[in-house]
Amino acid sequence: MSSTYVTLQRLNVNSLGRYNIIRRIGRGGAGDVWLCWDPRLEREVAIKTLSLRHQQDQSFLRRFEHEARITSTLSHPHILQVHDTGKQSLASGELLPYIVMPLIKEGSLQERLTTGRVYPAAEAFRLLKQAAQAIDYAHEQRIIHRDIKPSNMLMRDERWLFLSDFGIARLLATDKPGTVSDVGTPAYMAPEQSQGRVSTTSDIYSLAVIVYQMFTGQLPFEGSTALATMVQHILKEPPPPSQLNATLPVAFERILLQGLAKDPEVRPALAVDLIDQLEAAYTYPERRYEGLRTLKAMPSLAFQDRILRDEEPRHKLARPDRRQVLFGAALTSAFVAGGVLGGWGWLRHLSTLPRQVPLQLPLSARPGSTEPTNLSLVLTGHNFAPDTMLWSPDSSALITASSNGQIFRWDIASLLRSPARSDASPLYSQSLLFQNRSMILALSPMGRNWLLPTI
């Protein structure tokens, strides 16, 4: 049960702005979805609520309004329209951002996909073309979706698809200042996206994963945890589709594998080109495969998604308050102990300097070994080699510090305790920066707090 749902129930909230809440009809990583009634226009609508915010969090609210404006400019027959956005003030002193959308009663493509079942080809191509058109249109507007997946493809009926949640993945990415990994769904996430780089062909890759799933009945990569799945996307080649569906033509397989290329610049630049060529190869099996246009041939699409962030010049920042060096809450990052690959958490680092200004450190986690029986991770983020490493008494957390004043806390316990965490369940890391000072780390006897005296 989500914290938003519990809060609304506890505070007896029965409306969001002018919209009357009827019941919750969905829940996902981005938030809850509610069936609501619009008394002004006398119609049912779907409202997605995001995470609760403090009223003082003006930074997030500005980004929310910014993304809402961008999303409202999208006008395409296969992109779900945004009717309205708002922020509900709660008695708890918190704000609840929400997005109002048309109510789509036929569910999503996800509900029509069955493991082991190949989707009827004619129906698959019809829906995939619609999704591809929406993706290419958004890219023309210089907007990257970041979370293309079947559950974001809503069905008006059997023949008509809407791509939803534009802007939400971008908004969640801005909510993690300095993040190097990105928001997305591991089963459909392009290799570079889990490493913090997002381009138009990241969306193409996700669409190719859906094609693979529809025509083979299987996902190309399925690890035991979200992190294991992302490692497979980065390191492994997908099983040839023809091994799972022997009826697939050779040209179809080659085109699909181009869409699943590890290198973003090798993938097709246009989603419509990918689907059109796949359909042609499927319909005319003897057709010769010649490759599709890449970003090199279409440089206008070779852009990185720009994220609105609130940052200030470093020279304006005051020295940190010494009281900020003592804390007990575990802000953690994904970590692997004992050679066991446990799970995934979105990596983020926060400065304790005023206003939580990102330090722009290359914080990341990458595989240290790819052997199935001995998987491990290498954690990076220090600009200088760590010269201090301290384990908590119960080995649940590792604290590292380097001579340039960077400190990271890596929490292992949260990861190993819940290896089957949901994709949106965050693990965090925190970094502190103390310049031109010598540091000594000390843990409390129970390991719940740690202290940093500076000299």
From TrEMBL:
<feature type="repeat" description="WD">
    <location>
        <begin position="379"/>
        <end position="414"/>
    </location>
</feature>
<keyword id="KW-1133">Transmembrane helix</keyword>
<keyword id="KW-0812">Transmembrane</keyword>
<dbReference type="InterPro" id="IPR000719">
    <property type="entry name" value="Prot_kinase_dom"/>
</dbReference>
<dbReference type="Pfam" id="PF00069">
    <property type="entry name" value="Pkinase"/>
</dbReference>
<keyword id="KW-0472">Membrane</keyword>
<dbReference type="InterPro" id="IPR001680">
    <property type="entry name" value="WD40_rpt"/>
</dbReference>
<keyword id="KW-0853">WD repeat</keyword>
<keyword id="KW-0418">Kinase</keyword>
<keyword id="KW-0723">Serine/threonine-protein kinase</keyword>
<feature type="transmembrane region" description="Helical">
    <location>
        <begin position="325"/>
        <end position="347"/>
    </location>
</feature>
<dbReference type="InterPro" id="IPR011009">
    <property type="entry name" value="Kinase-like_dom_sf"/>
</dbReference>
<keyword id="KW-0808">Transferase</keyword>
<keyword id="KW-0547">Nucleotide-binding</keyword>
<dbReference type="InterPro" id="IPR015943">
    <property type="entry name" value="WD40/YVTN_repeat-like_dom_sf"/>
</dbReference>
<keyword id="KW-0067">ATP-binding</keyword>
<dbReference type="GO" id="GO:0004674">
    <property type="term" value="F:protein serine/threonine kinase activity"/>
</dbReference>
<dbReference type="InterPro" id="IPR011044">
    <property type="entry name" value="Quino_amine_DH_bsu"/>
</dbReference>
<dbReference type="GO" id="GO:0005524">
    <property type="term" value="F:ATP binding"/>
</dbReference>
<dbReference type="InterPro" id="IPR008271">
    <property type="entry name" value="Ser/Thr_kinase_AS"/>
</dbReference>
<protein>
    <recommendedName>
        <fullName>non-specific serine/threonine protein kinase</fullName>
        <ecNumber>2.7.11.1</ecNumber>
    </recommendedName>
</protein>
<feature type="domain" description="Protein kinase">
    <location>
        <begin position="19"/>
        <end position="282"/>
    </location>
</feature>
